[in-house]
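Entry 12.
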Amino acid sequence: MNTPDLDEDFVSPNPKARIFLLVVILLLFGLMVFILSELKSIQPSEEASPAQIDEAIHHLETLLSRLLSFSLIVSLLISLYFIHLSLKTYQSGRFPPPYFSVIRRTKIRRGQSSQRYAALSLFMALISWSPVVVLFYLQWIIHTQL
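Predicted 3D structure (tokens):
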């Protein structure tokens, strides 16, 4: 963990945080490739029989259910992180809070500026639930329209 002094103007980057971010990006890229390949396998041809279309719809429902479960877990973890970041920022009166890792050299913000970053963190916690809302909506459309 990075242990900055409160008197410093900047927090130095943590190599472990950079590696963690790279791994998360690669995992998300892999998930996107998997989803795209699954969607291509779902598309029935124009001459498909009703049984093949029903099978494709069932496969799509299964894929959406799995994505919904995954997005619920990821959204929960992301929102908990941003809520924790916001609370620590409010408590310490600085951003980034003491002992938080950063991926690049970051200027320490205090006062009103740190409060804005704390509010932004709470907003990001709320926004992290948008994939769950979209997937719930897609599942509702499939169940009601098809």
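Annotation: The first strand starts at residue 10 and ends at 11. The helical segments are 15-42, 50-92, 112-127, 130-145.
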